[in-house]
Amino acid sequence: MKTSRFKRSGLHFGLVTVFATLLAAPAAWAATGDQIGAEFQVHIGTEPLRPAVASDGAGNFVVVWATHDAIYARFYGSDGLPKGDEFPLAQISVPPPIFDGKLSVAMNSSGKFVVVWATSSDMTHEVINAQRYLADGTADGAVIQVAAPQQAYYGAAPSVAMDAAGDFVVAWRQISELDVPVGAVFFQLLRTSSVYARLYNAEGRAKGSAFLVDVPFVQVLEAVSGQPTVAAPGIAMDSRGRFVIAWQDVISDSGLISGSGLIDGAVNVMRFSAVGLPLGVKQRVAATWPGWITQPVVALGADDSFAVGWMDIVADPLTLNRTAVRMRRYNNIGIAQGPASDVSARTARPYSAVCAVVRPDGGLLFAWDGNDPTPPYSRNIYSQNYAADGTPQGGNALVNTTTTGIQSLPSLAVTDADGDYVIVWASTPDNTGSQYSIYGQRFSGR
Questions:
Q1: Is residue 295 in a domain?
Q2: Which of 115, 132, 134, 127 is nearest to 71 (CA)?
Q3: How far is CA 133 from the centre of its chain?
Q4: What CATH number does residue 427 fall under?
């Protein structure tokens, strides 16, 4: 048995699952840990799925996902076997039900967990919801309205993290805009982008109102084609309730009045106390020009050191290998431990999700989906391990056994103090879009 720096009574791993349009795939992969058992199927159905997973740190874990009108879950024990069939957690009751399936889940060491999601009745004004659950999946109180209907870009999902006592924090984006459609182009007169968060105790009572994480970014007079990617904030909380938020700072900075044209994408990070007070100042983790940075993810260790990951795209048509998952490490007082580095190889093939956790020994683990670099360019799930000092352990590793069809949208959780972990993902094995599954694979952390 390994010696762990996490105490079982206070074990909590920051977990954020984020979604984007990314480009990557490694040329080769190596083992990220021995597989524990075979790949297993969590669910099969007829709707696209976005799974999320969370663990109690004692080997048990829950997988949650959503259809257009309901949220479902399935429990698994420390032996990796299901604890019964899937069951509905909540109904999506917005009329008409406009819900894109994005959700976030967090669990503490007692097995209690919370799920957050956003719904909209008009694809413009969103309601942020949260629901707490007991360890057996029974709803613990009523659905919580975290944020009332507000002007928010449709599809910007909220994120949640929980501490050992069951207190939790929800973070989300709020975007207000005034634009005029001109054919396929929207002429944006005014746009503001903000990140908010709100704290709750273990009984689901708010610890005050929502608070602004950062000063809103304002864009004036800008022409945009279609709707830009707006990522959910990355968030992680330690066992004592202190938390870290990472967010996409700039969607674009090319407005005729407000834009400098120098930064197309950036990611920032900020640390907070258990009562929501800033610990230090906002830090810019990375920025690129010309290019794009989005889809932030943050992983927090027991000693409050953390890492921020993101998607990085170089907007240069002459550059073939333009995109990679990148990361940057910080110590427990928020000082960067060196420059940013690539997690995945830079390639021109897309992927759509990235997730990260800190292992009990202080090491890092990332997972993402990507296309193979050679024909037939199959989409698979990959992972990368790092030692506590940031040294890569092996190369990018192939996670899934099922390789037919499309494997995408991974979610990741460390399941025990030995560092064992589980990765779940969405699968379209028939490659026709008529059948959708969720698969999972457990790995040894030894």
A1: yes
A2: 115
A3: 20
A4: 2.120.10.70
Dist. CA 58–CA 56, nearest whole Å = 5
d(CA 75, CA 84): 7
Q: Which of 29-33, 71-75, 77-81, 202-206 has the lowest mean pLDDT?
A: 29-33
Model pTM greater than 0.90?
A: no
Is the confidence at residue 360, as pLDDT, over 90? Answer: yes
Contact 277, 270 (CB under 8 A): no
Round to whole Å and give the CA distance between 86 and 45.
12
Distances (CA, A) of 268 to 86, 164, 173, 213, 228: 38, 26, 14, 11, 18
In a domain, 1, yes or no: no
Answer whether residue 3 is part of any domain: no
Count the domains in the chain: 1
Provide the residue range defining the domain that includes 48. Answer: 8-443
284: tokens are: 């810019």
Q: What is the mean pLDDT of residues 54-61?
A: 97
Among the residue ranges 246-255, 282-291, 295-304, the one predicted with the least confidence is 246-255
User: Would you give the distance in Å from CA 152 to the centre of its chain?
Assistant: 19
Assigned domain for 199 exists: yes
Tell me, what's the pLDDT at 319?
Answer: 60
Closest CA to 137 of 64, 204, 57, 206: 64
Give 418 or 9, the one with higher predicted confidence.
418
Instruction: List the structure tokens of 408.
Output: 């995408």
Residue 398 one-letter amino acid? L
- Per-residue confidence band for 207, with pLDDT thresholds at 50, 70 and 90: very high
